[in-house]
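Long-time lurker. I teach an intro course on protein structure, and each term I like to show students one example going from raw sequence to a predicted 3D structure in token notation. This year I'd like something fresh instead of my usual example. Would anyone be willing to generate the tokens for the chain below so I can use it in lecture? Attribution to the forum is fine with me.
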Amino acid sequence: MCQQKDVRKFGVFPWKYGESFLVSFILVFIGFLIEFATGGKGISMPGWPANLLILLLFIAYVIIFHFLVKHPVKRWLSSVHAAISAISVFSFLVLLMGFIPQGRTSGTSFLSGLGLTHIVLSWPYLLSSLYLLFVLSFTVIRRLLPFSVKNVAFTLNHLGLWIVVVAGSLGASDSMQLNMMLSKDKITIPAYNDRGQAFDLGFGIKLLNFSIDEYPPTLGLIDTQSGELVFHKANLPEAIKGNKAKMGNWTVEVKEYIENAQKDDSARFMPSATPGAPSAYISAKNLQSNKIVGGWVTSGSPFVYRKDLVLSDGQAIAMTMRKPKKYISEIRAYYDMNKYEDFTVEVNKPVKFKGWTIYQSGYDEQMGKWSTTSIIQLVRDPWLPAVYTGIFMILAGALFMFWTGRAKNQQ
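-- Reply from a regular --
Happy to contribute to a lecture. Here you go:
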């Protein structure tokens, strides 16, 4: 007779994937309930040094629990089943951050109420990360003691992930992202968060100069009634002197181009030393009637009215607004009124000052290249080196695992 195999009852130790994923989902579900019940206010993580004290207490608790408690739950917490469930659910929450705009003012009230617009500071994230940290802690201790060279890669991977989660979670309260609006030749001290709260950073910043490098303006054939393009092309012709292009039934040639121009009394555009607008003299010839139309066009600016070259059949040649290629702020950051340091801040080229990373963020777009206002973003994340350390450990563990595996295959 065939011996009947015993079927393990659900919920009876040792727990497998079913129970492990159930625990993960229950914790996240409880987190969503708490978040919704509290109106999506999230949590306020304690800052330095309280967060460090909490971390030390957590480590002490895990060590004491590991050596003094003898219960199947301890073995389950260090199992593959618990690790995969904890990492999977936690990764799903992190993945949501890439699809849902983060910031307490972002998204709909429903998403905000569930904490999905501020996941790192939400209850679901807190409970999921705590579960993951417990699992990683017991897993590392179990494989680390007694020490063995064959467990080095495993320990590096799991301990590195532990450091990344801890630094990313506890460091959320110490990280700040503020904006400062600078006006030329004026020292600005307060910086503001996305809620409009002002912060005194202990130093001031003055805008010395702001400049923009722009792409050449382009020309388009538009409908004079709707203002929409009639002639569509992937790349519109640039308004460069001597440039020729075919646009619909017209051939267009740029006879003259002025980078910065103002209109004189004779309605002619002339180079100007004061703020103006890019302008071009256009000659357009109709391919069917050989009619030639010429005149000035400009995209306009706060100082010059826009002007199009009207053709026929309700069409006109228009100049597009110039797009910025890069914009640069020359700033002076003050340690005090007698000591300062000058920087040049450019998009994607931040500078560091007193523990803050300063990014070029924006400017007065209505004034364009004549803007006397620059918006900078100041970011501070003192836990970021710990995050990089954890990532380096994960990579080192992966390389060590690859190296040992390759060595075994060569034997």
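Some talking points for your students: The chain has a mean pLDDT of 88. DSSP finds eight helices and 16 strands in the chain.
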